[in-house]
Amino acid sequence: MAGTRGIATFRGEQLRAHTLRDAHFDENNKINENKIDFKWDNHREILENTKIDVFVQSNDKAVASLSKIDVTADIGARAVSTGNTVEGVVLSEKAQLRKTGTDSPIGDSDSDVVYGRLEESAGTYTLKFYSIENDVETPFTFAADAGNVDYRFVVRTNLSVIPVNAIIQGGAGFVEGATDAKAYMNLVQLMKDVYGSGGTLDDDGKANLGTNIVKQIADEVKARQAADTEIRNNLASTNTNEGAAMVGVVTDPNYTGITVQAVLIDLAGRLKGAENLTAGLADRDAATKNGYFAAGDFGTAEGRIEDLESTADAAFKSQADRLIKLETEDEEEVFEAVGGETEYLLTKGPAKDKTVLLFLNGASQAPGINFVYKRDVNGKIVGFDFAPDTLKVGVDANGNSVPDVIFVKYKKIL
After folding, report:
1. Which range has the worst mean pLDDT, 85-99, 166-180, 244-258?
2. I want to staple 47 with a disulfide (CB 3.0 to 4.6 A). Which of 106, 159, 288, 312 is the partner?
3. Domain of life here (predicted)?
4. Is the peptide bond before 253 cis (omega within 30 degrees of 0)?
5. Which residues does residue 68 pair with via DSSP β-bridges, in sequence order?
């Protein structure tokens, strides 16, 4: 058919499979989408079958004095995931807690991190709080003044329906143990503390210090040991201005000096002076005038004082014995009348009241009947008054004189 213009039409089945290439299509004359079957349902099914765990966050929850809170309103109508391929709330994962509006973890009494666990019962979700005590998960109760918290729980979903807030509120910035900008800033701060304000945080593999920190510490330890040895040697030294002369003391009016050495010198001088003062007291050159204290060397002043004490003690004992004897023994007096006496005065001293026994010619005499007491100006009994009776001298059958005889027994007033 030579000379025929145009291209003959042909049917699609006349085209051999796999013969069309990209060059056969005109960019300006695109095939309508309705002419192509993309199998969207197959693609969606793939997304739905691909499960993923994401965080969902809820903010500003009051927890003061609480060990659990009801979070049903936050979780909504979501079911519980019962397996890796089942969508819903994952109860097996910890719920992360942070102080509201921060990424700061919450610590218990010994700084262990406080976390939460979700529990579900008949559609009600409860967030309970825990921390680790002695390697055991233990319920935790917030203090009465605890601030509000943000928390994140895990939802198992698929790629086609990731929760709208899973990335914004559940992103990696809140991941447990993750390194963040704050941690980097802490590292920079540590570098400045180690190297000074001129330090730089680089990774060129070269030391930033002329002497590494380990060497610096070793040198410091060595220097400290040498200094300590020198101090001990100086304190043990007997050289001038060393030893006790290096140790200060609190000033006190009872001694002079501001160092141990100076005070020792002062006290030693005083002690020596006291020894010299008491040296002459150790002996008695001659006996005392009345002979109570004999001459002799007593070794020390204390020995001489003990001699004084023992001698005085013996004398005091003797006097006490004599006094007891005088107080307990009776005095006796006998008087023969010469005739005409109306009284008798005691010759050995005044008598104590109620101790006097008076006999006339062997007959007991009664005061107030046979006589009255004579007393001195102090009221002491000094004699006896017989008036108006008198003492007589009679004559016996043989013509011998027989005088009245007075016998008195009494205790004397000392």
Report:
1. 166-180
2. 159
3. Bacteria
4. no
5. 128
